[in-house]
Amino acid sequence: MNLRDLRYLVALADLRHFGRAADRCAVSQPTLSAQLKKLENYLGVALIERQPRNVCLTPVGEQVVARARRVLQDSDDIIDIARSSRDPLSGSLRIAMIPTLGPYLLPSLTPKLRKRLPQLQLLLYEYQTAVLVEQLRAGELDVGILALGVDVNGLESRELAHEAFAVALPAHHPLVKKPALRMEDLDDATLLLLDDGHCLRAHALEACSRIQVHEAGDFRATSLETLRQMVAAGHGITLLPELATLGPFAVAKNPVIRPFVKPAPYRVLGAVWRKSSTRLPAIDAVCRVVTEVLAH
Fold first, then answer.
1. What is d(CA 282, CA 90) in angstroms, rounded to the nearest whole number?
2. pLDDT band at 241 (very low <50, low <70, confident <90, very high)
3. Mean pLDDT for the chain?
4. Domain final position from 53, 83, 113
């Protein structure tokens, strides 16, 4: 039994497909299948149920995969410890962001990261909050950048910035006449929201908890850009995080963006990572750059 075979098994557990697992591991499908068969022979138990167009793990296989993940994480940590001792700001760092942040932060963040941390190879991912936290705990990520307020029990977290909300309005909406809005101005409005699984949905509802708003019962968006287009079409209003209202979006005539009168409602952006992480210097360096970018 070796680490390579455990990686093959974990890949198959993740993807439930021999071909895709082989692609992830950069080997041929027959090679991966043969090595996993050898692993089963060595252990003397069946790990995989092989059925036409259906691959699943046996109960024993599920237990072995759970241990294999920890073994592989420990082996990766050993490599990271050795690499970090030579240069803590080199090697690869797996960073994930939530969909309501990544597309608006990364264009200004990545050039600064490359300039400030040229030896650090950044592997960037995008996940909804629950999946991001799960991937982090499983050792598939090194650090996540997200909106705090979710359960990060067992992980370390660090506040990076407060991001204010603004209101997106159809061009013909009466509130467009006001240069800035109070929360009470939205009383009895129809609010368009993201679908379940997006933490921004909960944050928007929390921000509006002091007033009466009506959620559009027949519509939930899967992205901020869908929300933006639905508002522009006159189907309601929505709250957008500040980063999603800047740059090219700031000059759009429809929807119209109006800030809140200060103090505006906001969400807290932060970083999360495993307490056992060996990449703390690199995580700290990345967090400093993110904080700097968010402050401008």
1. 8
2. very high
3. 89
4. 83
Answer yes or no: is pLDDT of 83 > 90: no
Residue 255 sits in a domain whose CATH number is 3.40.190.10
pLDDT at 73: 85
Q: What is the pLDDT of residues 177-187, one digit of tens each?
A: 999 999 889 88
**Can you give the pLDDT at residue 218?**
66
Residue 78 binned pLDDT confidence (cut-offs 50, 70, 90): confident
Q: What CATH number did the domain enclosing 66 receive?
A: 1.10.10.10
The answer to whether the pTM exceeds 0.85 is no
Domain interval for residue 252: 163-265
